[in-house]
Amino acid sequence: MTEPAPAAPAAPDGATTEGERWLAEARAGVAQDPAAVSRAFALAGRKVGRAPVRPDADPTGIVHGTVDDEARAAIVVALAEALGRGADGDASLAARLADLYQHGDTAERRGVLRGLDALTARGALADDAAPSVVAVGRDLAADALRTNDQSLVAAAVGPFAAAHLDQHAWRHAVLKLVFMGVSLDAVAGLDDRADDELARMARDFAAERRAAGRVVPDDVARLAPDVTTGRTA
């Protein structure tokens, strides 16, 4: 008679899937040795998958991110916790995030940006608690916003941008999403930060589109409710 297979060992941190187990182990590894973050970032997509977080609303994963985006964000949080607070921890985290971004591929760069969002959501970057990280984060967001990669631009307008980008840069980031055809659902704090100047910019954009005989995206009306969207005769 065949013996029943032994039960699988309990997954760390309550993880149940192979990807969750890997992520829990990766976070624990970074907690023990922050230098392990580079390998964890590189492996995340293979280990947890690259599926969209919200497949029904965002099948491409551009607006709300992907599973590996979330995994890398969790790894960034683990890295921040391992390095600790204070000036030394702030400087070390800023340097490591810059290195991960500069030497990473597009997915890894998104992971850094989503990691900054996760730290912002946790309050770790509030009240000048991490000035070096915030300064580096602004630089990395600016770099992402200069690209024509929809996923990078969308990842650069999350909670970190809402809290730390200046109004000029933020307005142009929002309008770039409209130009690229990416839903403004990607923008954190849109209703709180939208202002008359952004509405004026949206109207100018709509006028340019009409003059060229092109469709005015529906999202323009979220910035300037008086604008008629769609194709005009």
Description:
The chain has 233 residues and is mainly alpha-helical. Helices cover 61% and strands 0% of the residues. The chain contains twelve helices and no strands. It has helices spanning 18-32, 37-48, 67-83, 86-102, 106-121, 131-146, 150-155, 159-164, 167-180, 190-193, 196-211, 220-223. It is globular, with a radius of gyration of 20 Å. The relative contact order is 0.08. Residues 1-13 have low confidence and may be disordered.
How are the SSEs placed, and which strands pair?
Layout (H helix, E strand, L loop, with lengths): L17 H15 L4 H12 L18 H17 L2 H17 L3 H16 L9 H16 L3 H6 L3 H6 L2 H14 L9 H4 L2 H16 L8 H4 L10
Helix pairs in contact: 1-2, 1-3, 2-3, 3-4, 3-5, 4-5, 4-6, 9-11
Number of helices: 12
Q: Which ranges are low-confidence, i.e. pLDDT below 50, for 5 or more consecutive residues? A: 1-13
Please compute the radius of gyration using only Cα atoms. Answer: 20 Å
Helical fraction: 55-70%
